[in-house]
């Protein structure tokens, strides 16, 4: 499993293809994607985003090495903030319930990501949790935002994802998006 960093990046990038179809065609731009925090004794991660193809689709690749066993004591927090304009303050738009790694694997990972993810990675089966230390990869995972269209309204977004153990952030990513 490409646990937190790839979960987060998949979620971010599922909503970040450049063309989003809906009642009206909207464009979504990934303005920034960065690792904010990484406890290097527990994790080493990297994520790469391809340049958009002719239709505006992107692919992601990445690696995750974790030296710890991930179970429900490792909590995942994903929060989305939004503003109409960059000169205004961001306000909380959506927050996924705080959940353990195994809980996430049994829900979002299993129901949204796994079937497609396994074709592009060495992702573990959703029932294989807790996760022993291992190295995972993701190669050229194509992104499709169609499942998230109803959540996209014009504006600027910041998505923050954190992997937390004992109230300490061990891994954190930030994505900044714009929907036109």
Provide a concise account of the structure shown:
The chain contains two helices and ten strands, in the order αβββββββαβββ. The protein has helices at 3-14, 101-117, and strands at residues 19-20, 26-38, 43-49, 59-66, 74-83, 91-95, 99-100, 134-142, 155-165, 168-179.
Task: Write a concise keyword list for the protein shown above.
disordered N terminus, 44% strand, seven-stranded antiparallel β-sheet, 2 helices, 180 residues, alpha+beta
Describe the structure.
The chain has 180 residues and is α+β, with helices and mostly antiparallel strands. Helices cover 16% and strands 44% of the residues. The strands form two sheets. Strands 1, 2, 5, 6, 7, 9 and 10 form a seven-stranded antiparallel beta sheet that branches. The chain has a three-stranded antiparallel beta sheet with strand order 3-4-8, with helices on one face. A hairpin with a 2-residue loop joins strand 9 (155-165) and strand 10 (168-179). The chain is globular.
Distance between the termini: 33 Å
| Total number of beta strands | 10
Poorly predicted runs of 5 or more residues: 1-23
User: Could you report the average pLDDT, rounded to the nearest whole number?
Assistant: 82
Structural class assignment: alpha+beta
Overall geometric form: globular
Largest sheet: 7 strands, antiparallel
Radius of gyration: 16 Å
Describe how the helices and strands are arranged.
Layout: H1 3-14, E1 19-20, E2 26-38, E3 43-49, E4 59-66, E5 74-83, E6 91-95, E7 99-100, H2 101-117, E8 134-142, E9 155-165, E10 168-179
Antiparallel strand pairs: 1-2, 2-10, 3-4, 4-8, 5-6, 5-7, 5-9, 9-10
């Amino acid at each position: 499993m490409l646990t937190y960093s790839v979960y987060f990046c998949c979620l971010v990038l599922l909503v970040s293809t450049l063309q989003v179809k809906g009642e009206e065609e909207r464009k979504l731009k990934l303005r920034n994607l960065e690792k904010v925090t990484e406890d290097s004794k527990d994790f080493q991660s990297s994520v790469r985003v391809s340049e958009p193809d002719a239709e505006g689709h992107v692919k992601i690749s990445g690696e995750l090495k974790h030296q710890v066993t991930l179970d429900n004591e490792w909590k995942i927090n994903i929060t989305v903030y939004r503003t109409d304009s960059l000169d205004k303050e961001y306000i909380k738009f959506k927050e996924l319930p705080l959940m353990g790694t195994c809980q996430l694997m049994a829900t979002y990972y299993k129901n949204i990501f796994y079937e497609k993810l396994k074709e592009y990675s060495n992702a573990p089966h959703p029932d294989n949790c807790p996760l022993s230390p291992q190295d995972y990869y993701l190669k050229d995972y194509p992104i499709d935002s169609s499942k998230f269209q109803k959540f996209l309204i014009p504006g600027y977004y910041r998505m923050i994802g954190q992997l937390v153990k004992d109230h300490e952030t061990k891994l954190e990513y930030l994505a900044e998006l714009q929907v036109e």
